[in-house]
Design brief:
Strand order of the largest sheet: 1-2-3
Number of strands: 3
Structural class: alpha+beta
Number of domains: 1
Helix content: 25-40%
Largest sheet: 3 strands, antiparallel
Strand content: 15-25%
Mean pLDDT: 87
Oligomer: single chain
Radius of gyration: 13 Å
Distance between the termini: 45 Å
Bound molecules: zinc ion
């Protein structure tokens, strides 16, 4: 069986590693205006900027304030 990240602790460790990695690479993060999760912004193939959280998932889907997510 392959290793699957399911536990909250593993998820937290993954998150911390991502935070460390983006710090090392000098990538700027901005806190989410709704939940203060640090986000990085990635450009999609359509040229739009997408907020990505420290789990490297789209924050639009994960934000507790999603549904009425608007910036600015
Ligand atoms: Zn958020």
């Amino acid at each position: 069986m392959s290793t699957v990240i399911t536990g909250a602790q593993e998820r937290e460790e993954f998150r911390n590693r991502v935070i460390l990695a983006i710090k090392v690479m000098g990538i700027e993060t901005k806190p989410c205006s709704r939940c203060d999760e640090p986000l990085i912004f990635m450009k999609t193939h359509t040229g739009k900027w997408q907020p990505v959280d420290m789990y490297l998932e789209s924050h639009l889907a994960n934000c507790p304030g999603a549904g009425s997510f608007r910036r600015g």
